[in-house]
Amino acid sequence: MALSAKERKQKQLEREQQASNKTPDATYPYLETPFFEHLEDDGNWSSVELCFDLMGLDPPIFEDDRGPEDVASDDCFSTDEDRVEAFKSSANSIGRAEVMVDLLLDAAVELSDIINKFKSAELQRRRDELAQSDMSNPDERSNALESSAQLAKLQDELKKNVRRTFPTWRVKVL
Fold first, then answer.
1. Alpha-carbon distance 29 to 94, whole Å?
2. What angle do CA 38, 39, 43 make, to 5 degrees?
């Protein structure tokens, strides 16, 4: 069966994304100072450390110019070739920082989805409990309907997406 115009465009975008993932960042040839050295003088790094401290996690340490392949857990890869392929477009400490941003965003999306599903399920349980409750008393019925309406509003809010903007941290030119 022939692909629709939309499907062809999606496949084209997927191919371009895959090609982009294999391409090194276009800024790399112009970066003279290693990123880990830059962090020694960047006062904003303490804000990153504070965020990790508030999460109860050890903040990342950039004490040398090792890339992401040097710090990734061995459990993530079945072969050394897989490790090299995964980080092909990310070099040195700047590449490690770029990969860190990508993975933190991925983790945030997954965690927010888990939280959202949990809250949605719990709210639905409360609504189901209210629907099964005895509503013979007019006051109880009124309270149950009001609570159900409030729960419905909360569920509607959970269906929305949140948008946050970030400065660009990777530059790929094909």
1. 12
2. 115
CA distances from 28 to 44, 85, 96, 131 (A): 22, 18, 13, 60
Entry field: residues in the chain = 174
**Residue 68: CB atoms within 10 Å:** 21
Nearest of 12, 15, 19 to residue 174 by alpha carbon: 19
Asked if residue 5 is part of any domain, the answer here is no
Nearest to 97 by CA among 27, 164, 162: 27
CA pair distance 161, 5, nearest whole angstrom: 28
Distance CA 128, CA 66 (A): 54
| Tokens, residue 128 | 């189901």
Mean per-residue pLDDT over the chain, rounded: 90
Can you give the pTM of this predicted structure? Answer: 0.81
**44 within some domain:** yes
Place of tokens 């392929």: 85
Question: Domains in the chain: how many in total?
Answer: 1
Does residue 104 sit within a domain?
yes
With a cut of 80, say whether residue 161 has pLDDT above it: yes
Is 84 inside any structural domain? yes
Distance of CA 5 to the CA centre of its chain: 30
Q: Are 67 and 93 in contact (CB under 8 A)?
A: yes
